[in-house]
Amino acid sequence: MQTMVFIGTNKSGSSREAIKAAERLGYLTVLLTNQNKFLRKRTDFPDVHVMMLSDLTKEHVIQCILELQHQGKQIVGILSFIETYVRIAAELSDEWKLSSFSAEAIKKMEDKIETHCVLQGVATPTFDVFHPENSLPAFLNRHKEGKWIVKPPKSTGSNDVMLANNQMELEKAINELLKKRRGRSILIEEYLEGPQYLVETLIHEGKVLIVAIIKQEFSEYNPFVITGYSVQPHFLECLYRRLYEDITSIIQLFNIKEGACHLELRLVKGKWKLIEVNPRISGGAMNEMIKKAYGIDLVEQTIRLYLGQTPDLTRQWEEHIYTHYVTVESSGKLLKITGRNRASRCPGVEKVHTKPRKGTFLQPPSSMGKRYAYVMAKGDTTKQAKVNALKAAKELYFHLEKKEE
Question: Using an 8 Å Cβ cutoff, are 283 and 325 in contact?
């Protein structure tokens, strides 16, 4: 039977929806996972036909694929929608001559310093790199004024990303990262003021296809954790044209002919500046948002693209969709979550999703992984969709175990 192998998944979100899409398309689905708990709760994954435990190193993934072939399964796809494993899947697809999703480009995108080198200033913020063997005083002397973003080159989910408002904070941030990531270079980018947008794209035969533009809003507690996503059904023509031109230039410099990318950009004084580019659909609720907004199942169309088919990105309808992610203000062990049913009954609400189970230790949002629920809502306008989502989110309450005084 024609078999599609998925390397890693989350229990929900875009990566899981991709497996469900493959099943709908009639393929035998195989999940390689390093999560023992997934095997213990096997019945939670009815869309996965075969589940195999693996450490997900390239060598072990190859062994699993060879075992599947020995069983007589015809491998037609090796895919991952998890950032850590996208490159492994692309490399194995090349080796098995299944599809070419530009493994070399994915490797460069994984390293933010490499990304800057590829783009050479095209729609990117000014940057510098501090190498551990260099003199920190001499480096700081070059950065006496300004605001900077300090981050590891391979940071994901806003982990260890810091804002430095002055030279003293810059020194502190660099020293902190040097302690955490010994021997690793550190990327310093200028801080950019302006609204930030996420752009989901597919690239087919070298042509960039913009699927959705989503405005992002940030947590009050952490300027790097995104808590609001607003799908933009309509965009100013002049801004869209410049956006398309800049994204096309970026994709061409990476030499991507086929694949999926999402980009995060800020609009700074009428010009687009790239924050990040990633070789996959954004995780979490992104696929669901696009389905609710336009009737497009992006993970399904990504699979079709992988199989050599032309993706269908025709909008079936247009809805204003806003998704609000919920965080907590204090730390503690989760006792229970209340208000889910009330939130679901609020006007315009399309979906309420809560992530943590009882007993999970919750923390304020130091990274994107510290977002514990989301509410997705629609409205007649973008503003109304946001109002509906925020109103419903207020119904959710995380009961945390109080610390003994």
Answer: no
